[in-house]
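Running this now, will post back.
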Amino acid sequence: MSQNTVIFLPNWVGDVVMATPTLRALRKQLGNDSKLYAVSRPYVQDVLSGSSFFDGEILYDPRSSDRALRSAAVVRQLRELAPETIVMLTNSLRTGVISWLAGAKRRVGYARNGRGPLLTHKLYPERNGRKRAPVSAVDYYLQLAYTLGCPLEPRRVELGLTAEDKQQAAAAWKTLDLPEDNRVVVFHTAGGWGGKRSIKAWPAEHFAALAARIVQHSDMEVLVICGPNEREMAAEIARQSGDPRVKSLAALTPSIGLSKACVARARLMVTTDSGPRHFAAAFEIPTVSLFGPTDPRWAINYNRYESFLASDIECAPCASKECPLGHHRCMQEMSVDSVWKTVLGKLQIRRQHAA
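Update: finished.
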């Protein structure tokens, strides 16, 4: 007899990508006789569009003005599905309560935020003393799959593209007159924590100077991708570069699908600790990632083509959403020279590989 399994997906774009090895493991374990459903924020659908992990989705946003997305509606839909198992990749007490109210026999998740008594299969995060040990979200989520008996799964993250995603990227390439022969370096800055004001952002003038070097010293062009709240910064990077070969998506209609497809077309990506950084891992695009206030160990996505540049000042990584000391030196003092050196090495390695 077929059994339904439900997964509460993470709320952050990058975490959703890092959860894909777990989704793959559970899909394999269930086979074709059982159905797998996702409960997710509406925008998460776009991250996984073009993938085939799920048989259905329930949209969920506890703060939405639309009651169809609120907790009570989700509980009703889950009761109709009557899932045997609910796996929570989220850590909130709220999702623990929803899973308990849904009546699932197996409720699997990490015992955090007071929800331990609501779980039938509970895990505990690794700790260093009183603090959680830095563990990649890829491994953090996979442990939940292993608790349910899934065999070891490769850590490779994956994403798909829809025909619409590809069409949007092709249209952007045409509108911006970008080269079609794999000669585009994609930039992305900011990433959560306040959009253009994010503490994780590298200064626009640094990105602009790097872009100018790339187009002046190689046959590459640069495209700055952005979300709706990052348009101003993306346009500023292109403007400050002073070179028409540096372009941005700021004047177009940004979307997660468009960003995915643009990254998939890139020769190289230069990015801060952001959700789109994980798109590069999914499409095996060489990447230079810049970390300041955040610890890279939490965000390892096992992209074998990635190089990290992390700040070594004494207060980093602080993991704060605002600089506690008010200077933001971890990102301000990450030099254009150091990033350029890494970028140049990546482009040369890629050329040698292509040859």
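Residues 163-354 form a domain with the Rossmann fold fold (CATH 3.40.50.2000). More later if anyone needs it.
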